[in-house]
Amino acid sequence: xxxxxxxxxxxxxxxxxxxxxxxxxxxxxxxxxxxxxxxxxxxxxxxxxxxxxxxxxxxxxxxxxxxxxxxxxxxxxxxxxxxxxxxxxxxxxxxxxxxxxxxxxxxxxxxxxxxxxxxxxxxxxxxxxxx
Length: 131
Known about the structure:
5 helices
């Protein structure tokens, strides 16, 4: 693959991964819509796009996780008696809702890990449990 094609692919991948439409990505990369659709039909290109999108999501998740502690401290500080009741109520609701969601996700992660371990350890001849 030539340097020009690789450079166009990298630029196109980034545009699409960031949510650009085919038309917008084509214009941004100085390509035709048809070329973009043809690239999207290429399994290797689609795989690279999925990998790039996944990497972007993981980075965002990391950034949100890093900011979560400060967000929780902010919500907790809004629980103080000097805060207006409506604000305290909103903070309490947010804490409860987010707490439940975080617990749910954590439990699902544990269950997924257990299932993945089961699948990896299962003999290819042995059928998986029918849950």
